[in-house]
Amino acid sequence: MYQRRIIFPLATILGGALLAAACSTSSSASVGTPSAQPTDAPQAAATVQVAAPTTAAVAAAVEPTSTPVPAAPAAAGPTQAAPEPAAPPPPPAATGPQTMALDLEDNYFTSKEVTIPAGTTITMAVHNEGQALHNWDVAGVTKTGFLQHGQTQVVTFTATPGTYNFVCDVHPKEMTGVLIVK
């Protein structure tokens, strides 16, 4: 086999263009290579030295191509992380007073479960549709007086979150329900 040791002192300066141009000559070039065809006999390594290129060769090697290569973007300072997604909005704040109605019938409430938002002032119109005497007593929250047939009493209250039982004090076993504040 035959070996070649090639020395290119300017290859690092001119980059791959000069190296490609120097290597594109045929392997049978007469500059520094033996003229005989290689044989199976071992031969000494030949050294090829390339002279410094001319100014024209350097200019040709660094001449820009017709298609410009885009320049790397300039550093715009430190990068910022993408903003974190916003937290879900808080539940709407309690609005102004809300007006509700609750009818009392003979021995039952028309609504056995009443749900209201916490922190809201509630104005409840309690109306007795029944023939008997009735009231609305929400344990620890509010209470109406005893109402005759056709009477209405309005109570205003604000309750903290929780579940409250309500009854008619005249019919405590039959007339029951719950007030849910959330």
Outline the structure in words:
- The chain is mainly beta and 182 residues long.
- It has two domains: 4-62, no CATH class; 98-181, Immunoglobulin-like (Sandwich), CATH 2.60.40.
- It has three helices and eleven strands, in the order E-H-H-E-H-E-E-E-E-E-E-E-E-E.
- It has helices at 11-14, 16-23, 55-62; strands at 4-7, 46-49, 98-105, 108-109, 113-116, 122-128, 137-138, 142-143, 152-157, 162-167, 176-181.
- The strands form three sheets. The protein has a five-stranded mixed beta sheet with strand order 5-11-10-7-8, with no helix packed on it. A four-stranded mixed beta sheet has the order 4-3-6-9, with no helix packed on it.
- The longest helix has 8 residues, at 16-23.
- Residues 6-39, 43-53 and 57-62 have low confidence and may be disordered.
Short description:
The chain is mainly beta.
**With helices defined by DSSP (H or I, 4 residues minimum), what is the helix count?**
3
Radius of gyration: 49 Å
**Which fold name fills CATH's third level, the topology of the largest domain?**
Immunoglobulin-like
What gross morphology would you assign?
rod-shaped
Question: Secondary-structure blueprint of this entry?
Answer:
Layout: E1 4-7, H1 11-14, H2 16-23, E2 46-49, H3 55-62, E3 98-105, E4 108-109, E5 113-116, E6 122-128, E7 137-138, E8 142-143, E9 152-157, E10 162-167, E11 176-181
Parallel strand pairs: 1-2, 3-6, 5-11
Antiparallel strand pairs: 3-4, 6-9, 7-8, 7-10, 10-11
